[in-house]
Design brief:
It contains 13 helices and twelve strands. The chain is an alpha/beta fold. The chain has three domains: 82 residues, Winged helix-like DNA-binding domain superfamily/Winged helix DNA-binding domain (Arc Repressor Mutant, subunit A, Orthogonal Bundle), CATH 1.10.10; 91 residues, Periplasmic binding protein-like II (D-Maltodextrin-Binding Protein, domain 2); 99 residues, 3-Layer(aba) Sandwich (D-Maltodextrin-Binding Protein, domain 2), CATH 3.40.190. It has a five-stranded mixed beta sheet. The longest helix is centred in the N-terminal third of the chain and has 21 residues.
Length: 323
């Protein structure tokens, strides 16, 4: 391909097609006719010597080559947009945008209601969207541009990303109030749940993929013990609902237990083994760091999430590492 004769307007068309995977939707996005987009696609296929898309029903499925260039092309388009954008003051009340947050339903309970109230006044046309596209692959959704921010337990990120620590979360055991086995053992809410009882009772486990083990099992393994997993659920709300209506117990984040204890008639107990504190971080793409709208929404979310560090138990009497 001779880049000197390449029509750079075709980059916008290709980027829109890769995002929308439809000539109709790409045309709407670009404010062009569908025939103009189809014509541009024909030119792209000729100039790049690749089919770029294969039609499958109503969708255009990218070829391997198109998939390979999708993210670099999107990043270059973002850079060009930022390069030529006119400086302007940012007014959240006047901004129209979607802001996609990749996170578990923990944040549906502890973040989204706060945003519903706060942003309705300050930024009524900014629409936060909590998405759960691929559990435990939230970082990839940020890298690929299908989400704007990931809220996750801390893990390594690539040099394309930025991250900020938001809060820490201990894990607690929940059981329905007046649980017969706990009453028989004379174990009261707030006390340490006996190890034998913790291992004997059946557990409801949060696992979007349906795995039958999690960090609680790793902690038990250090003591040479195992627990009985009765079922797995893909959302924390389901775990708590099952526990509230059965004799199962569960290990969940402390802040979530505090949120639902009264509403679902749950008691909270200290786990009988040391479960590491989880550090929750926000991860976003560096290309969005200085975007005024992204920065404003990010700051609203981070300010609220950092308040969760104040909702922590007194860990001095909890099992420590090595116990």
């Amino acid at each position: 391909m001779n880049f000197a004769t390449f029509d750079l307007n075709l980059m916008r068309v290709l980027d829109a097609l890769l995002r929308e995977q439809s000539t109709v939707k790409a045309a709407q996005k670009l404010n062009l006719s569908q025939s103009a987009v189809s014509s541009a696609l024909s030119r792209l296929r000729h100039m790049l010597n690749d089919q770029l898309f294969i039609r499958r029903g109503n969708r255009l499925v990218p070829t391997d080559y198109a998939q390979k260039i999708a993210l670099p092309l999107r990043e270059e388009m973002d850079r060009l947009e930022a390069l030529f954008a006119q400086p302007k003051s940012f007014d959240p009340a006047a901004e129209h945008m979607d802001f996609r947050i990749a996170a578990s339903d923990f944040f549906a309970e502890l973040l989204m209601p706060i945003l519903a109230n706060g942003m309705a006044v300050a930024a009524p046309n900014i629409q936060p969207k909590l998405i759960d596209l691929v559990p435990h692959r939230y970082i990839q959704t940020v890298e690929q541009g299908s989400s704007d921010l990931a809220l996750i337990p801390e893990e390594p990120v690539g040099n394309w990303a930025e991250k900020e620590v938001l809060f820490h979360s201990a894990f607690a055991v929940i059981a329905r109030r007046n649980h017969p086995a706990l009453q028989k053992a004379n174990t009261k809410a707030g006390e340490l749940m006996p190890l034998e009882l913790f291992c004997a009772l059946r557990h409801a486990l949060f696992s979007p993929e349906g795995n039958s083990s999690a960090m609680g099992d790793a902690a038990l393994a250090k003591l040479g013990r195992t627990r009985k997993v009765g079922m797995t659920l893909q959302v924390f709300s389901g775990v708590c609902r099952v526990v509230s209506e059965s004799d199962m117990i569960a290990l969940i984040p402390w802040q979530l237990g505090q949120k639902w204890a009264d509403q679902m008639q749950l008691d909270i107990f200290v786990p009988p083994m040391h479960v590491p504190i989880v550090k929750i971080v926000g991860v976003w793409h560096k290309r969005s760091t200085n975007n005024p709208a992204h920065r404003w929404v990010r700051e609203q979310i981070f300010a609220e999430m950092k308040k969760l560090d104040a909702i922590q138990p007194d860990l001095s009497a909890w099992p420590q590492a090595g116990q």
